[in-house]
């Protein structure tokens, strides 16, 4: 009885104690789980997915391999922001930085009418704010998206030069994608015309420097060709195109193959453009070229769907009729054939009327021959002065009221054709317009053909002999940076830029040398060049270095005064550190006191083929594959960090813009 009373008295206390222990353990487990989950989520939100979390009571242990000391400290700070920092136990290790391969830094710059995007990985020590500010100055009111990430590694050699070049190129490219790596640039861009494309390629190549690896992919929209013109002829056994147009690459290939079968030798160009009158254009051209070959010469001219087939003088009438008949029956619908068999020329009592316009290499124009009346002579004189300059035209043409009514229009068309040449002759007769000369335009023959067909009709007979000379081409004739450097060095081999003794003022004899160098540099355009100053070894080394710097800067200032573009030039003083002769003799000291012009060439670096965007895309693909496998096995994955999501969004944006 006494034991029962004791049991009844102690049992409630025992039960309460057990329940208290159970509740306390449950509360501790809840606190552990809550702390661990909260810290885990916070670490993931900050991109610290490498850190592991384990809670033991009130203590929270952080473990894992931190990529850097900064990342380790960031993990501790993040955990300390969720729970009391005193509860956080650091069990993390830091990866040995010497064993980590530096990442490959690169930037993808995307620009269109909607703005500019920067995507990639750059060194932490790079002046990122300056880069973004420069891009914003180019974008104007358009938005700039900065999706760059940084890595704390040394800046690669040539990285700064590559980024500077990319910014300069971006100013010229309103619709472009520029891929930047250390020592390498890839440019994808669009221009408004073929001429703009050619000029831009030349400018970008020239300003890239010798050792910067530059890849250009610049496209131009297809031109609208009106009228859609083609002219093929065989003269004295030689086949050639005066003008050639095609609607696509396949048609271009067919047309050129037909011309080669007809006897065309060497390379020929055929412009792909818009405005073709029929999808069967190439077929019609093939048939017409074959007809010219069968006639043994002559010409065929297409002006949209109108075709003029001109046989050589003296062609057998039966052969002409057969070829014309076969061609008429074979041509696709829509095309209209206008055959022409020239009649033998007869000598007129007063001679064949003729008008001749001659353009000299100096730009002087002489007009001789016959014009219809005083009004026609006044109109011809005014038109020529408008085309070639009021002080460059000399008129010595007589009046002839027996000329045909189309004569004034033929004369004006001949003058307009002559304006496409650098020098040459335009000859107008009642039956023919002949244009010959030299030009700096690669497609001058095609332009003249289209002009004459458009102004005078597809039945007009004309003869074009135009020679393209690269030295007359305002784009192709620009010397390369290496040629500029060589020409300046040739001047300085025999003539020096001397200064007043102990001064940075060029002497009187140096003015002529500076004038000649300035004329060369004006032709060279924007190139990166260093003006280096050198002295002999007399005097203190520090004073010599300062004097050489002042002299190099004085030369640079003198070039600016002569209107040379020097924004890409640099002045540097080397003092006595780079002698080219002995300082023991007066001749040697005189040789060492010099100014040198050298191209600024970035240091060559190894280039990897995979870009930052490609790396990001491949990593994203691997992650997606891993997520798919985990979903199939029932595992869960953590959300991607905000920075990674932003980069993937940028990559998607790039794909959209490229489309």
From TrEMBL:
Please name the Pfam families in this protein's record.
BON (PF04972), OmpA (PF00691)
Q: Return the annotated region ranges for Disordered.
A: 617-659
What keywords would UniProt list here?
A: Cell outer membrane, Membrane
Q: What is its main location?
A: membrane
Q: Where is the signal peptide?
A: none
Q: What are the residue boundaries of the OmpA-like domain, all occurrences included?
A: 486-603
CDD domains per the record? OmpA_C-like
State the superkingdom.
Answer: Bacteria
Cited PROSITE patterns: OMPA_2 (PS51123)
Instruction: Please list the residue ranges that the record marks as compositionally biased, kind Acidic residues.
Output: 628-646
- Name the SUPFAM superfamilies for this protein: OmpA-like (SSF103088)
* KW Endoplasmic reticulum (keyword) present: no
Any one of the GO CC terms? cell outer membrane
Q: Which cellular compartments is it found in? A: Cell outer membrane
Q: Where is the composition biased (Low complexity)?
A: 647-659
User: Which InterPro entries does the protein's record reference?
Assistant: Bact_OuterMem_StrucFunc, BON_dom, OMP_bac, OmpA-like, OmpA-like_sf
Name it: Outer membrane protein ArfA
Organism equals Thalassovita gelatinovora
